[in-house]
Amino acid sequence: MVTTMSATFPQMSCIHTFRTQSPLVRFKSTRNRVGSGSWSIRVSPASTGPGEIALAQHRSEDKQLQMGIAEFYDESSGVWEDIWGEHMHHGFYNQDSTVSVSDHRAAQIRMIEESLRFAGVSEDPRKWPKSIVDVGCGIGGSSRYLVKKFGAKSVGITLSPVQAHRANALAAAQGLAHKVSFRVADALEQPFPDGQFDLVWSMESGEHMPNKAKFVGELARVAAPGGTIIIVTWCHRDLGPTEKSLHPWEEDLLKRICDAFYLPAWCSTADYIKLLESFSLQDIKSADWSPHVAPFWPAVIRSALTWKGLTSLLRSGLKTTRGALAMPLMIEGYKKGLIKFAIIACRKPE
């Protein structure tokens, strides 16, 4: 059972858009406005070493990032649900197929089913997962679908109080409150004992994690022996054998996306695989599903440009509007081969 993280991790090619790169940077007392409240950090250079200063700075940045993510989804989840429904993730489309507007919600269900199939989750009812955690659950669409499919019990976690409240309300309305529940919690410090879940599900939440090693470590920790871990997430392209970093234009494009969607560090699929290997997880496999999600962002843009979409955006607030304006950047990233829509699955040893 994995209970702690290794002392060292493989070299990763993540780009960091919220972190100061030099641990020697010294800073005075600062106060940063976040939403309608405020948050401050004070560090005394006279009594604190460079390493401690850097650690305090990282913690403060992570805290600020978490608050930004929570506020972003507090503000935008209602708009998304109103237009796209309860599944807050990409759809899975057959390549080169003609896609009608009515197909998009069905494509989101296909994304769930194809993810289960890719991970090798058994069709045999005797082998179905009995306990599930939905890490970064949104308003609970995946959890409720999986509970109904497998007859399992599930718990979802999110940084957004608005999402957790709405997810629980939808579960109650669908008669599933005895099977599934949702709470506000940090995916990097999950409030669960070791080895609790047969299926650990992360559908498009990994991109928000500032510490990918800790994120993977928590997924491994809460997975039961023999349990399945499924990570579906945005990544940047794998680096070539002679590359040490992305090109400057690629880093610039990702930074602009990060600023709009409250994302910290991007990493590659290869980086995730190295991390999973460092925790001795088994049957690790991955795939690039970028071609299967290609119709998604153009469809989201079209929905945002309808009268209903525009009025919803205007009511929702600045963060949601800024995210909507960044959607063409996602399309650009996919078209240029920089952004990859990755699925990664593995199993915890018995």
Could you explain the architecture of this structure?
It is a single chain. The protein has 350 residues and is of the alpha/beta class. The protein is built from 12 helices and 9 strands. β4, α4 (161-173) and β5 (180-184) form a beta-alpha-beta unit. α6 (248-261) packs antiparallel against α12 (327-335) and α9 runs antiparallel to α12 (327-335). The longest helix has 35 residues, at 50-84. Residues 1-11 and 13-48 have low confidence and may be disordered. Residues 132-141 are annotated as: SAM motif I. One of its GO terms (biological process) is methylation. Residues 222-231 are annotated as: SAM motif III. Belongs to the class I-like SAM-binding methyltransferase superfamily. gTMT family.
Short key terms for the protein model shown above:
single chain; 350 residues; alpha/beta; 7-stranded mixed β-sheet; two-stranded antiparallel ribbon; disordered N terminus; methyltransferase
Number-wise, the strands total 9
Q: Give the overall form.
A: globular
Quaternary structure: single chain
Please bin the fraction of helical residues: 40-55%
**Largest β sheet strand count, sense and barrel closure:** 7 strands, mixed
Q: Pairing-aware structural class of the strands and helices?
A: alpha/beta
Radius of gyration: 20 Å
Beta-strand share of residues:
15-25%
Number of helices: 12
Q: Can you give the mean pLDDT?
A: 79
Extract low-pLDDT stretches.
1-11, 13-48
Please state how the strands of the largest beta sheet are arranged side by side: 5-4-3-6-7-9-8
Q: For the terminal residues, how far apart are their CA atoms?
A: 9 Å
